[in-house]
Q: What sequence folds into this?
């Protein structure tokens, strides 16, 4: 049963909740022509279709067929490296021995549904729980597959973006799902941490992706990057792909 799109606790779902993670064999089968369902055709990029999040309906683009956007969320298979998009925002990564886990606090039930499903698509198990301030904490299990992410981002007690950090559509999609907020006609992407150097690095990655944003400082309602203007918001929509079924109307940028 879908999570609520409001800030209310989605009582219909037990705590904690997990989504099934496809086995390596199942993922390999989907990448082969033999594993394709009868009558199914390859995607425009020439690869097999990516499995939809559990419980999600297939996205049908408005206006019929369209060309995929270079570096967009739909142009490559999901990978664990995409989770760097959460760390550009309010996500945190933690090490424990030879494992690591990622956590992020979000403000609405629909974000929980989208993030847990996106994590499952990358072979990462996650649970969620309500917080004392009426929000939701999404946490992955500790896993060895997350160690490279932690190694790239952790510098002692701090979590600065690694040198050469870049943002593509898949990373932006996760960041938007966790901390993007419509502010018509603009969009806001909330940041984490309290280091201006961190924000500058992330801002440079946004600019390189064609999304030059205005940094709003903490005292003025930030830290957040405001993606302003119709052209840039359309570019954001092209990069992050179709609105997830769990996201309410108006919560996701539209291409048109």
A:
């Amino acid at each position: 049963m879908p999570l609520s799109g409001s800030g209310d606790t989605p009582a219909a779902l037990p705590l904690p909740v997990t989504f099934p993670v496809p086995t390596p064999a199942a993922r390999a089968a989907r990448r082969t022509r033999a594993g394709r369902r009868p009558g199914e055709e390859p995607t425009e990029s020439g690869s097999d279709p990516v499995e939809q999040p559990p419980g999600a309906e297939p996205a049908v683009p408005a206006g019929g067929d369209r060309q995929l956007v270079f570096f967009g969320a739909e142009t490559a298979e999901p990978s664990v490296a995409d989770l760097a998009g959460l760390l550009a925002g309010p996500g945190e990564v933690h090490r424990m021995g030879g494992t690591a886990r990622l956590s992020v606090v979000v403000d609405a039930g629909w974000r929980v549904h989208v993030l847990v499903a996106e994590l499952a698509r990358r072979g990462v198990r996650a649970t969620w729980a309500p917080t004392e301030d009426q929000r939701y904490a999404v946490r992955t299990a500790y896993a060895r597959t997350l160690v490279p992410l932690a190694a790239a981002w952790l510098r002692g007690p701090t979590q600065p973006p690694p040198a050469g950090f870049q943002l593509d559509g898949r990373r932006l999609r996760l960041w938007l799902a966790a901390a993007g907020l419509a502010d018509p006609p603009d969009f806001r992407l909330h940041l984490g941490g309290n280091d201006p150097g961190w924000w500058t690095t992330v801002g440079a990655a946004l600019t390189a992706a064609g999304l030059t944003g205005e940094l709003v400082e903490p005292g003025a309602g930030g830290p957040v990057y405001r993606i302003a203007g119709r052209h840039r918001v359309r570019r954001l929509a092209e990069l992050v792909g179709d609105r997830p079924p769990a996201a309410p109307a108006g919560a996701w940028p539209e291409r048109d």
Confidence is low (pLDDT under 50) at residues 1-22, 29-71. The longest strand covers residues 99-106.
